[in-house]
Amino acid sequence: MAYTSIDDPSAYFQTVLWSGDNADTRNITNDGNLDLQPDWVWIKCRNTAGNGFSHNWWDTQRGVSSSINTGLFSDNTDSEGGGDSVTTTAQLGGVSAMLSDGFTVKEGTSADDARYVNENSRTYVGWQWKSNGGTETNSQSESGSNIACSVQANTTAGFSIITYTGTGGTGHTFLHGLGSAPAWFIIKRRNDTEDWLVYHHKNTSAPETDHLLLNTTDATSDSDTRFDDTAPNGTEIALGNNAVCNADASTYVCYAFKEIKGFSKFGSYTGNGNADGAFVYLGFKPAFVIIKATDADEWRIYDHKRANAFNVINVRLKAHTTDAESQDDNECDFLSNGVKIRSNSGGVGSSGQTYIYMAFAESPFVSSEGVPTTAR
Question: Rounded to 5 degrees, what are φ and ψ at 322?
């Protein structure tokens, strides 16, 4: 079996950093080995917290525009565009275009109108994933238990973005386009306030019965109204009738992932309560990792660009809050083949605690031609 099908992960995932300059329009260009035209961009201000400094998400499935605000914000329940706090003139600024190797950020029309993406004296990070250039790969109409949906999928990278319209029914399904069962997916209601629903295949021993919420620190919770107690299969994702995922006539977006050897991994580990913590084998040198305890705790985000030039990785952001970047003495090491936990904190290393993670590669542990990579 091949070591990996993706020798250069920068074709499908990249991280970019910039300092704000208050420009009306600014192109943010990637510096990876390969050009990447993103389909999903996730931006966070690094050095400022509070109102206007949310994690903001943009994608080509819902569309980006210079005049219409399509932002979603993982630290709150607002509907698309920021709920009642903004108008369709994109007051607070955002992503207005996807480029052949990056994206364009544009200021808005109110005071502090660039604060989400490009305000002077602020520093920013943008995480980007490639799907299919905004082009639909599959769809279905509402019929019986089928939920009307539009899918753009990249089976090589194991990533799809799906928009769908809820039915309010139980046991209804939409297509995900990945070709095999997703290991992780996130659902957000677009046209009304609602939590960010998370499925992870290692969340519990029966993950189809349980869920997490990306916008809170809540522990795993059991409810058959989310995933209908039905595991996703190679074609479909099943839903219950909860408004978080399937209110009648409401619109939703789903970001779905399957594991790709040498590029992505969605697993779990158990903390040991020691600074010499667990080793998490990934099969690649990580570029981006999210860790969350299945009990109540933070969604911690680490990447290879904001971190030190060498281990340890001690700079984190949190997906559920507007908090600025924080730094501890030790968090984890990014190794050539995985992550080594270097803390006994509740966020990553508490004894006996189960943690789930989402990880993407900087480089595979061994290339498709058998060449090993190096650690930081």
Answer: -80, 0
The radius of gyration of the chain's CA atoms, rounded to the nearest angstrom, is: 19
- Is residue 28 a contact partner of residue 305, using CB atoms and an 8 Å limit? no
330: enclosing H helix or E strand: strand 326-334
Render pLDDT for 158-209 as a digit per residue (tens, 0 to 9).
999 999 999 999 999 999 999 999 999 999 999 999 999 999 999 999 999 9
Pick from 120, 95, 104: nearest CA to 20:
120
Q: Within 13 Å and on the Cβ side, how many CA atoms surround 269?
A: 24
Cβ 278 vs Cβ 297: under 8 Å: no
φ, ψ dihedrals at 43, nearest 5°: -115, 140
Alpha helices (runs of H) in the chain, residue ranges in sequence order: 224-227, 243-246
- Report yes or no: 73 and 117 within 8 Å, Cβ to Cβ: no
Are the CB atoms for 254 and 176 separated by under 8 Å?
yes
**C-beta separation of 280 from 269 below 8 A:** yes
Nearest to 142 by CA among 119, 163, 172: 172
Nearest by Cα to 239 from 186, 178, 176, 166: 166
CB 332 within 8 A of CB 339: yes
Under DSSP, is residue 173 helix (H, G, I), strand (E, B) or coil?
Answer: strand
